[in-house]
Amino acid sequence: MGNSRSIAINLIVKLSSFLLILWGCRQGRPSQFVLRDPKETGLTFQNTIHEDARHNLMTFFYLYNGGGVAVGDINNDGLPDLYVTGNMISGRLYLNRGNLRFEDITERSGIVVTGWATGATFVDINEDGWLDLYICRSGMYPPEERANLLFINNGDLTFSEQASRYGIADTSYSTQAVFFDYDRDGYLDMYLLNHSMLDLQPNRIRPIDSTGYGIGNDRLYHNEGNGTFRDVTLAAGIRYPGMGLGVVVGDVNRDGWDDIYVANDFMASDYLYLNQGNGTFKEVGRQVFKHFSYSAMGVDLADINNDGWLDLVVVEMLPPDHDQRQRMAFPLTSFGYYQAMLQEGYHYQYWRNTLQLNYGLNAQGKLTFSEVGQLAGIDATDWSWAPLLADFDHDGYRDLWITNGYRRAVIDMDFIKDRMIPVLQQERRLGTDSVQRRLITMVRELYDLARPDAVFRNRGDGTFALVSKAWGITDPSFSNGAAYADLDRDGDLDVIVNRIDQPIALYENRGGQGHYVQLDLRGHPPNTRALGAWVEVYCDSLHWVQQHYVVRGYQSSVDYVMHLGLGSCAQIDSLKVRWPNGQQTKWIRLPVDTLLVLHQPEGPGAFVKPPDIPQGLLVERTDRLPPYRHIEDLYSDFIRQPLLPRTFSQLGPGLAVGDVNGDGREDFYVGGTYAQAGWLFLQQPEGFFKAGPIDPTAMLEDQGALFFDADGDGDLDLLVASGSGEFPEGSDYLRDRLYRNDGQGQLIWDPLALPEARTSSSVVRAADFDQDGDLDLFIGGRMRPLRYPLPGRSYLLRNEGGRFVEVTNDIAPGLGEAGMVNDALWSDYNNDGWPDLIVVGEFMPVRVWQNQEGRFREVTAALGLAHTHGWWNSITGGDFDQDGDIDYVAGNTGLNSRFRASRQEPIRVYAADFDGNGLIDPIMTFYLQGREVLVPRMDELFMQVLLPRALQVSSYATYARSHLRDLVYETQLKGAYVAVAYQLASSYLENQGDRFEVRPLPLAAQVAPIFGLLAEDVDGDGSLDLLAVGNDYATDVLTGRYDAFIGLWLRGDGKGNLHPVSHRESGFFVDGDAKALVRLQVKNEPAYLVAQNQGPLHLLGYRSAPPVSCWPWPSEAVYAQLHLPTGRVERRERYWGSGYLSQSSATLCVSKKVQQVTFHAAQGKTVQQWVP
């Protein structure tokens, strides 16, 4: 096949759909924006595209990528003027005549452009105080017709083209140029963003070219200071090719040297070039970001949460509605193909917009971002182009404007499968030219994807509300480049959008409710507009930062007048400017709602001090551990079961803490895998650890582990549960094991100690549930291999002289089939002296079995927990409100997910043998836009399951509208096992005596799944806090890895409220696929240990003297009462295991403010008192 097939394959990677109108509207108020009539404004240009033999999607796959917008005051009259680029026609230059009226001066200005223009940027390149114009070109043209253009402003509304004279008539396929002083020599250099029309298969997996000569390599030009530029691409380290569609420059790590972010289309990963301060850059994208958008387009960089660090938004092409998602062609949905991409060195990339929150530097000086676009609600805006972050309503937070739309729905799967592929298959018979003509005709007949721009209001809490309709943005269009500026100088930002086959859209802003300030920065030559200046504004407790750059979004540049919304701030307390040369100027008590002209002072440049490395309460102590990294074998459940939502072979490792050898020092065990035996770490006198496998032959899939005295001989034995989706039920690899301690610290497997189960287990917990003086067990069943989502088998085991007997059905009806259990906790929730059992898991409610003197009754519904079904991972307990009973925190999947769930709109899995082949077929659904929809894509589902009514589905469009009941018989659906989830938020469960109130944890705890949980008074202030770790890398390709969590300390206030503490203050930083979290004593001081799947251990201790005192739990004690200076009494329980696959120290740590601690046995008997 010829080039037609190659290009057609590329078309299968683009997305599309119709924009969903969400809540967030301001009822009863005029629209924020009004679309002005082009006849009134004079902005009549439209970027018209004519498809012909030379210009069509078969020969030029960027045919409908559109043009850009550049804003700048070309005649220095104080009004911003406009230039818009055209693809097949010349762009136009518009002079702002005031009152939103513009005059087309293109011909008389001399800026008449031929060829295919893309991005445009106004810049004072020759330091004369007049803005010049640089225009990029691309297209299927010879080099001389796509050379970029530089129009020098003559100061009289005319321009002279001089790109060759300056040395920047680059003939690459260019998208946009950004000017910045990367080496701080005072002169503006140029980064040129490129793509390529020569690579006909940009989605083909190939070795990454790092030579700097790859197709589509960007270019960096150094300003020599003599009116010329020199190509320094290779010397500066710009060595990676891509399909660049977006670029921004800014100081992301705040070291005073500006960095570059490049958004690449197709398979090429995005790049972050960190400025090294010596004229070179280092590409660190894969080290700094956990994942990127796949077909990345436009990009913007600004502080969205007012924490002083620049955040990043990149747009892609995911439709918000289900029908369009199911009809569109997704690239790389195959698990195997995706893994091949990763193995070749490409980074994780997903098919959605991404919002990267900048957390700044951690204690090791590492720059850290977390991607939270789904949590923020901005992830799906269809075929998107330009994201612009600006405060359009003046509430003090930057909103988000996204242009979108596409002229032809070329990635419609019905079109590709039923029309395009049959024609391509005739190429040998009909010839390439004939096939191309047919394809061109067919594409012309396709429906379009005209959409209103997606505009989001920043709520100020980390989430955004879609307000397009409420703000008056309702005109469907094919929008591409866009820019903002206060065009009428009335104090708010208007928006200009370049559209295909439609006139320019000018959205007039009718004003917000809050205050603002505009800044016109005047720098010294050669950087007369002070590009790169860093501005900070302070008002009361509020703080805003903005860096002065104009290239933003897509192929566009905004006005040089900076604009900050200030909310309720009526006077600026102080304003600081760090000028491009490092000088700093401060103004105090400045007015608001005005334009301030700020001049750079005379004087030499200054050193910019990088931000201090955080000195948090906790500090990394991992150097006390020998080298260790958790290893999984190369296995994926998706190979055998493509319909699973996650793999069940990446669940560990667990951690258990105990003094194994009786030397008074706490040791710990790390669970093993089929590829790695479990390791025992023995603490040495100096606080370091020695380690090795306890049984080198035991290469099993360990889950929960527990140190406890199983046989009453005074030493700690070890119970290890086995579980995985890798092995069938009954396999030896699923055998739980009890290792008996020989009294010398040697652990010896006793194969007769436990009943023969050989099911996939998860958690193991101990308590004396019958109060006969020894510890009994609960072992949770995780799942049934190859029969997801059927519940695993759970067990209650009574200790009878060191042997364990299964008594589940006899004393705890229903517990054996509790669900797909992830965690459990023995806790006396009702303070009656008997340990109750709380069990959580996937598609389970928080289930409670009340202990009624050694027998159990489920009381879940009576406690108000009947409809708490979630994807629960973990649970721990603590008296967070200091009222004398135990409250609970449960870790869930969180809200940074493509899924949403509620009581009215749950997630479901329908499970049955729908095709009669003897295997369980799990088919997941969830609600989108009020309708229950199928999660699997049509090909994915039909290749896996021969559904009885599948033949009635004749197209992808039909499938998109189908419910599962349309694909199977009604009797099959009625007989199916149905798993449901109503909530995904990690939650706090307040104990109110006879019931629980469930409320979500703060948003900072919802960015990813929470696994490890630990309730401790971390800072010793007398109130119980919460430490949490998480993430989940075991997901399917379309869902993508949950990877935004970096560890979290939630500070308690003693009233049941938990407040996030920044990692810079806490020092608690764990950003891998974290699972177990425990506290242990290291050299008699508390430390925190975290285990990560396929990652290293992390040990964190206190930077200085711990603010808490610790004491061993007396052997008889099961709870303690802490008498506080406030007169309140806090209850603490002793847990033999708490939090995901975790068992912590057998010591109690309390604030040094605590006046007395009283330890109690089960029925309240005081066994010891302690004064910290």
TrEMBL record:
<dbReference type="Pfam" id="PF07593">
    <property type="entry name" value="UnbV_ASPIC"/>
</dbReference>
<protein>
    <submittedName>
        <fullName>RNA-binding protein</fullName>
    </submittedName>
</protein>
<keyword id="KW-0732">Signal</keyword>
<keyword id="KW-0472">Membrane</keyword>
<keyword id="KW-0677">Repeat</keyword>
<dbReference type="Pfam" id="PF13517">
    <property type="entry name" value="FG-GAP_3"/>
</dbReference>
<keyword id="KW-1133">Transmembrane helix</keyword>
<feature type="transmembrane region" description="Helical">
    <location>
        <begin position="7"/>
        <end position="24"/>
    </location>
</feature>
<dbReference type="InterPro" id="IPR013519">
    <property type="entry name" value="Int_alpha_beta-p"/>
</dbReference>
<dbReference type="InterPro" id="IPR013517">
    <property type="entry name" value="FG-GAP"/>
</dbReference>
<dbReference type="InterPro" id="IPR027039">
    <property type="entry name" value="Crtac1"/>
</dbReference>
<keyword id="KW-0812">Transmembrane</keyword>
<keyword id="KW-0325">Glycoprotein</keyword>
<dbReference type="InterPro" id="IPR011519">
    <property type="entry name" value="UnbV_ASPIC"/>
</dbReference>
<feature type="domain" description="ASPIC/UnbV">
    <location>
        <begin position="530"/>
        <end position="596"/>
    </location>
</feature>
<dbReference type="InterPro" id="IPR028994">
    <property type="entry name" value="Integrin_alpha_N"/>
</dbReference>
